[in-house]
Amino acid sequence: MTAVRLGADGLAERAGELAALLADTVNGGASVGFLAPFGPEQAAAWWRGRADAVADGRLAVWAALDGADRVVGTVSLAFAFPGKPNSRHRAELVKLMVHRDARGRGLGRRLLTVAEAAAADAGVTLLHLDTETDSPAEHLYRSAGWTRAGTIPDYAADPGGVLRPTTLYYKHVGAGTG
Fold first, then answer.
1. What does pTM read for this prediction?
2. Which of these, 137, 141, 126, lies nearest to 176 by C-alpha position?
3. Cross-sheet strand order for the sheet of 147-157
4. Predicted confidence (pLDDT) per residue in 11-50, tens digit
């Protein structure tokens, strides 16, 4: 697996593949902010809508490529809004996804490691995320040293439209965290 950081042009070039991944993730039951059925056209429009944030540095997106140069996973970091000096030290880990046919091989952990290292390299010292409570992702985050901060009931609808709780996690990265 190779993880490549996508600029705005790369995001546009890979929008179709990222869309297929996002649609697979949602239609497979993962709660990543969308309701099923969720088609590639909707997913491609969503990815294209991220291009401005990538271009101005508010969002960093990595695509995991398999040996055939096919997108099989992704992860993103959402950085603090410009003009908020009290939050430049933190970023949110968002949209960690692995295609259903590529799961179980450590790809999620590798993408998580890539994002954590990139955050530290960018001077970020605190990462945070939310994930559906009791989802498979929770095990990944706990085993990677993330700290559970709490749970919010009825936070978001899963792909089937059922309200589910979400669990918040954080992790210190970079200088002074060792």
1. 0.93
2. 126
3. 2-6, 59-65, 71-79, 90-98, 126-132, 163-172, 147-157
4. 999 999 999 999 999 999 888 989 988 899 999 999 999 9
Give the tokens for residue 75. Answer: 């992860």
Centre a 10 Å sphere on the Cβ of residue 41 and count the other Cβ atoms it contains.
11
Other beta carbons within 10 Å of 3: 18
Closest CA relative to residue 123, chosen from 91, 171, 78: 91
Q: HEC string of the chain? A: CEEEEECHHHHHHHHHHHHHHHHHHHHCCCCCCCCCCCCHHHHHHHHHCCHHHHHCCCEEEEEEECCCCCEEEEEEEEECCCCCHHHCCEEEEEEEEECHHHCCCCHHHHHHHHHHHHHHHCCCCEEEEEEECCCHHHHHHHHCCCEEEEEEEEEEECCCCCEEEEEEEEEECCCCCC
